[in-house]
Write a structure and sequence with these properties.
The structure holds 2 protein chains of 2 kinds. By secondary structure, chain A is of the alpha+beta class. Chain A has 3 domains: 291 residues, no CATH class; 115 residues, no CATH class; 58 residues, Arc Repressor Mutant, subunit A (Orthogonal Bundle), CATH 1.10.10.410. In chain A, 39% of the residues lie in helices and 20% in strands. Chain A contains 15 helices and 17 strands. In chain A, strands 1, 6, 7, 8, 11, 12, 13, 14 and 15 form a 9-stranded mixed sheet that branches. Chain A is elongated. Chain B has a domain of 35 residues. Chain B is flat. Chain B is α+β, with helices and mostly antiparallel strands. Chain B contains 3 helices and 3 strands; from the N terminus they run ααβαββ. In chain B, strand 2 and strand 3 form a beta hairpin. Chains A and B meet through strand 2, helix 1, strand 9, strand 10 and strand 17 of A and strand 1, helix 3 and strand 3 of B.
Chain lengths: 481, 96
């Protein structure tokens, strides 16, 4: 019997803000334990929560970018449970009236090769709600230590329908959500800092069966690769159990990335009874069209739309767009130059994705610190296009521009890279190369096209790399025939 | 819930993490039962055409701008902790 997996994700994303969701205590990562706390965070008697406007703006922006419906009114509920990560013994969240409903996220599955665009699909969302993050437990042999710095951070939970079927799809979903969040400035989604976390609900059923199988909730998926690997492992495990004739008991499991396997945490018998109730400390939020409209106006062009436009408007190969587009800053950097000279866009794209990225990574600079601006890129591609310098010399000119911040023409002038000879001189060098290398000449005459390269080299050497290879190629052919 | 349905007082106590004596169980069962009885009475009301209310105060959109203005020292924050180490609250080992 053939089996298929059905996967739903719960993705938690921290909203970037100065203060926490229900109090104006500083929010942040990497601070000394329990230094980002106040009476509300610690759940001290009498402390009352007050909403952070920024958190509402952030989740509305996320909802609009992910094609959700934003109902007119949403409200706050308490989810009751006892666990030391929550000083209140309840989490403030949204139960029956979340801030965003429905939604669709476009994803791209991996293609046949890195140069090929993969299949695009749309994943259905159930809802997005807003809640407070909880503290962090550090486990030791004898006891656990609690740090409440994270507690109270603005957190949105994005819940999908059981609409995915493989680790690849889940991976693509998280990648797409992360890119949109970063593009919109809602969150940095750094999984190492816990700014984005995912749990997966995974079940397996015989192909053709309508009802879902018993699901396993998989926790501790701390990286996007962890999500992919954890889900793939769990699908294989459940399929193996079902093939053996065993049944799956609904339960919570965790992914152990070090061991590369999943393990059971608890059976559903001790499932929580959260006793949700409306939070009397917080007022409902009404969101009108005016509010939605100004937030909508702040949403930039989203990554897949930009990618389609880059391919269309600039005739860029997929590979270049797949490096440029995931990074909003890089794509804008590229476009600042490309829109001024669309015909040269591919050459610009090549410099950006190869030379700029390589030098930034080697020098540890950020794009904002880079001395090579749109102006520089244009001066360089123009010099190559006009034939003032060869592509090869262009690479050296780029390095000089990167170091000194001069435009290409200034570098060419200063380093004397402009050819100081005319075409007749090149012809002389070509004839010399032909005379000095009879064997490749014979090979070429016999029909071996590649033999010409053995003549090209000596000519380039004679010209100190300044001759235009295309012209040399042409001259060689003429002289031999 | 109908009033004939017995309140699982032990379950409720377990959820609230409190230990009850036999007398307390009997006493609270009765009290909770009367609360549920009152809710049932409310259910008799005709609420057709009445919007559900999330909050008794007719207020909406109460918030502050995102500006940091509140803090508490580590010492004060941990003052009530029965045990602390490395500026963190020590709790029995719990793995969830």
């Amino acid at each position: 019997m053939e089996y298929e997996a059905v996967i739903g994700l719960e993705v938690h994303v921290q909203i970037k803000a100065e203060s926490k969701i229900f109090t104006r205590c500083k929010a942040g990562f990497g601070f000394e334990p329990n230094t980002l706390v106040d009476p509300v965070v610690m759940g001290l008697p009498g402390a009352l929560p007050v909403m952070n406007k920024k958190a509402l703006d952030g989740v509305i922006k996320a909802g609009l970018a992910l094609n959700c419906t934003i109902p007119d009114v949403c409200k706050w509920d308490r989810k009751n449970y006892f666990y030391p990560d929550s000083p209140n013994n309840y989490q403030i969240t949204q139960y029956d009236q979340p801030i965003c409903e429905g939604g669709l996220v476009e994803i791209e599955l991996s293609g046949d090769s890195r140069a090929a665009m993969g299949e695009h699909k749309k994943i259905q969302l159930t809802r997005i709600h807003l809640e407070n993050d909880v503290g962090k437990l550090n486990h030791f042999t004898e006891d656990s230590l609690v740090d409440y710095n994270r507690a109270g951070t603005s957190l949105m939970e994005i819940v999908t329908e059981p609409d995915m079927h493989s680790g690849d799809e889940a991976f693509a979903f998280l990648t797409a959500v992360r890119q949109i969040m970063v593009y919109c400035g809602i969150s940095d989604c750094d999984m190492e800092k816990g700014q984005m976390r995912a749990d997966a609900n995974i079940s397996v059923r015989p192909v053709g069966q309508k009802e879902l199988g018993s699901k396993i909730e998989l926790k501790n998926l701390n990286s996007i690769t962890g999500v992919k690997n954890g889900i793939e492992y769990e699908i294989k495990r459940q399929t193996r159990e079902l093939k053996k004739g065993n049944t799956i008991t609904q339960a919570t499991w965790r992914w152990d990335a070090d061991q590369g396997r999943t393990e059971s945490m608890r059976e559903k018998e001790d499932a929580h009874d959260y006793r949700y109730l409306p939070d009397p400390d917080l007022m409902p939020v009404r969101i009108d069209d005016e509010w939605k409209n100004w937030i909508r106006a702040e949403i930039p062009e989203l990554p897949f739309d930009k990618q389609r436009r880059f391919i269309e408007a600039y005739d860029l190969p997929y590979t270049i767009t797949s490096v440029l587009v995931p990074d909003r800053e890089l794509s804008e950097y590229f476009e600042a130059a490309a829109k001024r000279s669309p015909k040269m866009a591919q050459a610009i794209g090549n410099y950006v994705t190869n030379d700029v990225l390589r030098e930034l990574s080697e020098t540890g600079q950020s794009l904002a610190e880079c001395k090579v601006t749109a102006e520089h890129l244009l001066s360089l591609v123009n010099a190559v296009e006009k034939g003032t310098i060869t592509k090869q010399i262009g690479k050296d000119v780029f390095l000089e521009m990167f170091k000194s911040g001069e435009l290409a023409d200034a570098v060419i002038e200063r380093k004397g890279l402009k050819p100081n000879f005319d075409e007749d001189q090149v012809k002389v060098w070509c004839q010399e190369a032909i005379d000095e290398n009879p064997r490749p000449v014979d090979d070429f005459k016999a029909g071996n096209e590649k033999a010409l390269n053995a003549l090209l080299g000596p000519v380039m050497k004679k010209s100190r790399g300044k001759a235009n290879p295309q012209i040399v190629n042409q001259l060689l052919r003429e002289l031999i025939s | 819930m109908s009033d004939t349905e017995k309140i699982d007082i032990e379950y409720v106590a377990k959820l609230a993490r409190i230990a009850l004596s036999e007398e307390e169980k009997a006493k609270f069962s009765e009290q909770l039962g009367s609360i549920l009885g009152y809710i049932e009475k409310l259910e008799e009301l005709n609420t057709e055409g009445v919007e559900p209310t999330a909050h008794p105060h007719p207020m909406e959109n109460v918030w502050q701008e995102d500006v940091v203005s509140s803090e508490l020292s580590v010492e004060a924050a941990l003052q009530n902790a029965p045990k602390q180490r490395q500026n963190m609250v020590v709790v029995p080992k719990v793995v969830e």
